[in-house]
Amino acid sequence: MFDQLIYKVLDKIVNTCERLKKCIKDNPLPKACYDEDARSEEVKK
Fold first, then answer.
1. Residue 29 burial (CB < 10 Å; 0-12/13-18/19+)?
2. Collapsing DSSP states into helix, strand and coil, what is residue 30?
């Protein structure tokens, strides 16, 4: 009984992590967030 509960919780955690990983991969940050040159170009606009 206790093992079944632990497996369900761990399964939920793994599924949530996989969904977050997919969301992060599909929606990358704009280049200006991590590149100084791109940021300076965007500020000039």
1. exposed
2. coil
Which pTM value belongs to this model?
Answer: 0.57
Give the model's pLDDT for residue 42: 66
| DSSP class per residue in the chain | -HHHHHHHHHHHHHHHHHHHHHHHHHSPPPGGGT-HHHHHHHHH-
Average pLDDT of span 14-35? 83
Mean pLDDT calculated for residue range 11-31: 88
d(CA 34, CA 39): 8
Query: Is the sign of the CA dihedral 15, 25, 34, 30 positive or negative?
Result: negative
